[in-house]
Design brief:
Elements: H1 2-23, H2 25-32, H3 37-59, H4 67-80, H5 97-107, H6 111-132, H7 138-150, H8 152-160, H9 166-182, H10 185-198, H11 207-211, H12 217-239, H13 258-262, H14 275-296, H15 301-319, H16 328-339, H17 345-367, H18 376-379, H19 383-406
Helix pairs in contact: 1-17, 2-7, 3-6, 3-7, 3-8, 4-5, 5-6, 6-7, 6-8, 6-9, 7-16, 8-17, 9-10, 9-16, 10-12, 14-15, 15-16, 15-19, 17-19
Length: 410
């Protein structure tokens, strides 16, 4: 349980630091007004990301855990050896992802290199996010960037857990920035395609809702269809139907999600684990995201896109039976920059609580042996199970709260 305690203490410390900054928010914004963004973000990243990485992995000598130890090092090593994804080694991520991991391993063959890659890529995502929200005044935007680097989820998912989920946001925002600069739909389509190739299959979920927000949806659809045919044809020619391996990820039961918290109260009668729920979850995610996009399409694009994104991946986090709370990292930047009302004490408290619960629960759940609750009696079988179920239910409720906030124009 030491890992759980460390994560809890870090999460509480980060939350306290955010609270101290917010108490002096007006003074902080006034000070940031004349400060260059590169310097502020760079120094804060150095203190809150690079120094913890050096302290944990180089000074204390700890090895990365979670996904890095589980399969990322295996995928990256296979790619580094020149093996072909899906044919020579199994992978549940998109085709370019292991080769990006291999780049870091080629420079430093150590699991710590993968963790460092995650730290660097998160910085790129934050810089692009800062540039994306040009409608927010400089001082407020810079303060939000600093607050992001202080979030428990940002620190723990990146440095300790080595999670890459923020990459989806990185490539999507990068594509939008390229389109803003060039005005060419083909550039937007190529950027989206690159994100699909470099991350994971769930990156496709935002495409339909996104079409409601772009100026030329039919043109974008045509470009995406053309690029998709070429890419799928190439993959089929190389590995046959083995490129479907990422879809198997949906078959893995995880928690917390809506099904995991409802299942015991209906005496395990909903058929959790069946393929039907994967399709229901897909329809709910895309349909709910599309509904939010239609509600907010007339807002400034940065706001509308962020609300759609939080809607899609917030829903995915609670309706997909393979989802768990690490997926907060998929939508943490737009949630912080566009959804949280930083003038509302309630929003601030709920946001910090959401962060704490999401970073602590995965370790707690895994170390309990991935409990699955089939009846109410399973919940009350022990105090640890009651605590686990309470954490699950709280995360699901808070996720729905933020999805609901994303669908509101105010």
């Amino acid at each position: 349980m030491s890992v759980i305690l460390i994560k809890l203490l870090l999460a509480l410390g980060c939350s306290g630091l955010i609270g101290l900054v917010l108490i002096r928010r007006r003074q902080a914004e006034a000070w940031l007004e004349t400060r260059p963004a590169a310097t502020v973000i760079g120094v804060t990243w150095f203190v809150l990301r690079l120094l913890p990485f050096v302290g944990i992995y180089l000074i204390l000598g700890y090895q990365p855990v979670s996904d890095i130890q589980g399969y990322l090092i295996r995928w990256g090593s296979s790619a580094l050896e020149g093996k072909l994804i899906y044919r020579d080694f199994e992978c549940t991520y998109s085709p370019l992802y292991p080769y990006l991991i291999a780049v870091s391993l080629g420079m430093w063959y150590n699991m710590k290199a993968i963790a460092l890659l995650m730290v660097v890529m998160e910085l790129v995502a934050l810089v692009l996010t800062f540039r994306f929200f040009r409608n927010i005044p400089h001082s407020r935007r810079l303060l939000l960037a600093v607050l992001y680097l202080m979030t428990p989820a940002g620190l723990i998912f990146t440095v300790i857990a080595g999670q890459e989920d923020i990459w989806l946001w990185l490539f999507a925002v990068g594509a939008c920035l390229l389109y803003r600069q060039t005005g060419k739909t083909v550039v937007l389509a190529l950027g989206i395609a690159l994100g699909l190739l470099a991350t994971k299959a769930v990156d496709v979920l935002y495409l339909l809702p996104f079409l409601f927000l772009v100026p030329k949806p039919f043109q974008l659809t045509a470009w995406l269809a053309g690029i998709g045919v070429v890419l799928l044809g190439t993959l089929y020619g190389l590995v046959g139907l083995e490129f479907m391996q990422p879809i198997r990820e949906a078959e893995t039961l995880r928690a917390p999600n809506l099904l995991s918290v409802v299942n015991p109260w209906v005496m395990n009668s909903i058929g959790r684990g069946t393929g039907t729920w994967n399709w229901i979850g897909l329809a709910a995610t895309v349909g709910g995201g599309s509904w939010i996009a239609l509600r907010v399409w007339d807002l400034p694009f940065e706001q509308a896109f962020s609300r759609m994104w939080v809607g899609v991946y917030g829903l995915m986090m609670v309706v997909q039976q393979s989802a768990y709370s690490n997926y907060l990292f998929l939508f943490l930047p737009p949630l912080l920059f566009a959804i949280v009302n930083w003038d509302s004490t309630r929003d601030i408290v709920l946001f910090l609580l959401f962060n704490i619960l999401c970073v602590v629960h995965p370790s707690f759940w895994w170390r309990m042996g991935n409990p699955e609750y089939l009846t109410p009696g399973d919940i009350f079988a022990s105090s640890l199970r009651m605590l686990d179920y309470t954490l699950q239910l709280s995360i699901v409720v808070l996720t729905f709260y933020w999805v609901g906030r994303a669908g509101r124009k105010a």
